[in-house]
Amino acid sequence: VTSRRRSLQLAAALVAILCPAGAAEPPTADAALFEGMNKELARTTHELALPNAPTPYYVAYWVVDETARSVEATLGSLVSDSFDRDRFVKVELRVGSRSSDNSNLGTTSADGDFVKEAELLGPRTTPLDGDEAAIRRDLWLATDAAYKGAVEALERKRATRQSEVASHTEVPSFSADESAKLVVTALPPSKELEPRELSKQISAVFRKFPEIQKSSVRVTETTTRRRFASSDGGLVVEPTRVAGIEIQCQTQADDGMSLARSTFLPADENGAADGAAAAGRMGAELVELRNAKTATDYSGPVLFEGKAAAQLVFELLGESLSGTPLPGEQSDAESPLSRKLGKRILPPEFTIVDDPTPHDLGRRAVARPLLGGRRGHPSAARRAGRRRSAEEFLDVAGSARRARGIERPRPLRAHGLGARPCREPADVLETRALGLGAPRSATLRSPRGRW
Amino acid sequence: LPAAPKRLELDRPRASGTAAAEPLLDVLTDELKRNFSELRRQGESAPYYLGYAVTDERTVEIEASFGNLVSATDDHTRGLDVDVRVGTHQLDNTHQLRGEYDVSREFTRSAWLPLDPDPDALRSVAWLATNAEYQRALEDLVRVKANKQVLVAEEHDADDFSDETAATFHTPPATLVVDIPAWEKRLRADSMPFREHPEILESSVTLQTTAETRYLTTSEGASVQVARTHGRIEVTASTIADDGMRLERTETTDGPSLDTLPDDARIRTLVSKVIADLLALRQAPPIEPYAGPAILDGRAAGVFFHEIFGHRVEGHRQKDEEEGQTFAHRLGQPVMPKFLDVYDDPTVFALNGTPLNGYYPVDDEGIFGTRASLVGEGRLEGFLLSRSLPYGFHRSNGHGRRDRGHRVVSRQANLIVDPAVTTSPEALKQRLIEEIRASGKPFGLRFHEITGGFTNTTRYGSQAFKVLPVMVYRIYPDGREELVRGVDLEGTPLASLERIEAAANDFDVFNGVCGAESGWVPVSAVSPSVLLGQIEVTRREKGQDRPPLLPHPVAASGAKK
């Protein structure tokens, strides 16, 4: 099957399982959860109030189920096999107005306490098989904390605004976009993974390379079911699945330089063959790299091939294209592109698009397709750099929060590159130092052969 | 005080240690010999000791809350810790670096071993970890020698590593069979009573169970394979008082296997106790700072001794010149009242029928665990000893312990306070009341439950301890008791130990885990209730958050399940 044909098949399958437009009702399996979410939304909107404080003008709830399997092997032997199931709730609550609300302040808590802030805004674990009562209990407590934090943050933001010089254009805190109504009932069928066998089979390839000191293959499969409800009528049910193979290997050159290679592949029907081929290729490249001459300082033209070029673009532009304005006190660090709309930022031959909706790009950048967006807004391709100008910024919610590191370190939605958006960029040739460093080459001979 | 007989039955099982060694141990022993023999060719840089310690651990944890399942995890890992020593037994790479604090020296370069018995894969991991640890050992030895050269002479020259006989001891590996669906069902039901109490904001009933096999092979010829299984039921709940004070109550029951854990009826009793205590605490008055006489009930007294005494008699602290060394030079001198004996005995499996967490036959340096006599008739008799001995000692007493990934230091196992003279709990209370009346104090205190504590043993900072009581009662001169909240118990060790006046005969066991330089290790503390002539309590840090603004959602709708 060609990549193009597979893309079309997946797209057709996705279309088939989407509910017809206008029929955005939660599936029966989620009815009790949505009942609980809606009751708490109603209580929050109509009853939640501190004396002499503003009431919420926008509330959104997420209830997310996540099942994660992770299997690691080295040299054909199993190292670990873990399986986790979680369900967590998350609350976004806004007080003030859309033009200026509690959001986007450097820190939410008055004393800059990040632990407290994480408690206020971070996800909260809730029972896996929770009924309406259980989900309401956790939403009630999470909402209470979020509201108190929001009121405190709004007051601090107002005080800050009064005392600081207006050095930048004030932009609205929250757009008037409507939240989405979107229900995806099921995932397209996929081949059942055998992660133990897959990881062992691929990792055994490195047995051929005694020069490689350390190698591992990790097969991961994460399925999520995301439910979203908001006070402006938003409703999203979205199941997703990501299965991948992470291959890593490392060694040392004779001069002590640590060398490593890593890659990430989709764990689909070709995963075993592709993984074995990638491991063999990486092993050979690492051995070649180990014997290569040390690079000298250089200034001149460079060719970035394929994924390296994509990575370069991501590093140069990715974060700068985030549309979320920085908090007021960090306005000095605003994106270099923030005032470049309509102006040339790249040579005329380049068009850059960020489109979270494709499910398959020739079996390469297969991050999860984004249907509902993190805030429940319909996804759409965002074009940046079309006709050489910065046309539009990515309206990703929560980028400021992610930057402060308080979001749960999970592969939640993010406009990143590759399938590991919250971790490292995928598949980049690396020669970075290894953690604690190793100043000398191995004194001992490898038990797998002399080199 | 009227004497009352004590009952202190110690169960010490006799494990033969003659089970067959697992293939894993044989593979690692072969790789250790190969590596050691190659490194021995490094001349003056050759190591004099190499050890591989493996912790094979399978853990199942199931948590339920308000009748629902929160999580169920089943993990299996196999960690390798490599210990390389270069130099000599008298001075090696592990020697203290005075004036420097390098936290990485508390950790090993640990690695994850394959779970499959593939010799090539196992040897590859061990080889690389050995190389990394050896290179670090060389660098550390240079630092140690430079440190000794430029600083003043140390107060005492104590060897870095004792010369010991290598042990061979093999028990069958630990296994774990858990009917996870059945436990999920049980815990759901057991956690259901919390639903009836909307004041309780969070709660859970959790099963934690572990099967752990520790392997040790060394260049000295030690070959150890020791299994340990453990289970715990934990019932915990929390709420917020109207003044913003966060209140938490936890009850745990430990056992060496799943079948020794409490049945559902007993778990429900724990749940009821947690609910009743928490609701009572919510209504209880906060306490003001106070100094006066107090009784520490059995488990609370166990934690008290663990914090103020146990940590200060760990052997490695006696030669560390940055430590407070409260007892380092007090051997043979009185350190507490004459009627008290204190010892630490890892070979005790159960006390008066209650299993102890701190049991082990062989420690993490391959030394058979033995009873360490610490205090006899109030006089200091010894220390807890690993192979890193304080001045004047020549043999470990089998208290070298570590969590995976850490270097071994001396630690507590089963700390037992054993008074020669005991009275009844009622007589102890009566004595407290007499002291209150005699001193003109409005009340005394009784500490019933302590959740844990901490102590500073270094010279930097005050030599103080703090324990965290949760169930504390005022005892008035008429004998009436009143629950109070928001109490911390603070003090300094020598003054506190001297104020112990009497002990009851109601021995109780605190089973828990203790964290220190070598990580978290399972421990027990055993003590009867004791009367102290004076203690000092302070106000606990209090949250400022209001209780939830809206009423509990289910209580508000009147629809309890």
Describe this protein's structure:
Chain A contains eight helices and nine strands. Chain A has 451 residues and is of the alpha+beta class. Chain A starts with a helix and ends in a 48-residue tail after the last helix. Chain B is α+β, with helices and mostly antiparallel strands and 561 residues long. Chain B is 21% helix and 33% strand. Chain B is built from eight helices and 25 strands. In chain B, strands 2, 3, 4, 5, 6, 7 and 8 form a seven-stranded mixed beta sheet that branches. A six-stranded mixed beta sheet of chain B has the order 14-13-10-17-24-23. A five-stranded mixed beta barrel of chain B has the order 9-18-19-21-25. The N and C termini of chain B lie far apart (54 Å). The chains are: A alpha+beta (451), B alpha+beta (561). At the A-B interface, α2, β1, β2 and α4 of A face α1, β3, α2 and α8 of B.
Keywords:
heterodimer; A: 451 residues; alpha+beta; 7-stranded mixed β-sheet; two-stranded antiparallel sheet; 8 helices; 9 strands; 21% strand; disordered N terminus; B: 561 residues; 6-stranded mixed β-sheet; 21% helix
Strand content of chain B: 25-35%
Percent helix of chain A: 25-40%
Tell me the Rg of chain B in angstroms.
25 Å
Unreliable segments of 5+ consecutive residues of chain B: none
N-to-C terminal Cα separation of chain A, in Å? 42 Å
How many strands in all of chain A? 9
**Helices and strands of chain A, in N-to-C order?**
HHEEHEHEHEEEHHEEH
Largest interface: A-B, 55 and 57 residues
Number of strands of chain B: 25
Mean pLDDT of chain A: 74
- Please give the count of helices of chain B: 8
Q: Quickly count the helices of chain A.
A: 8
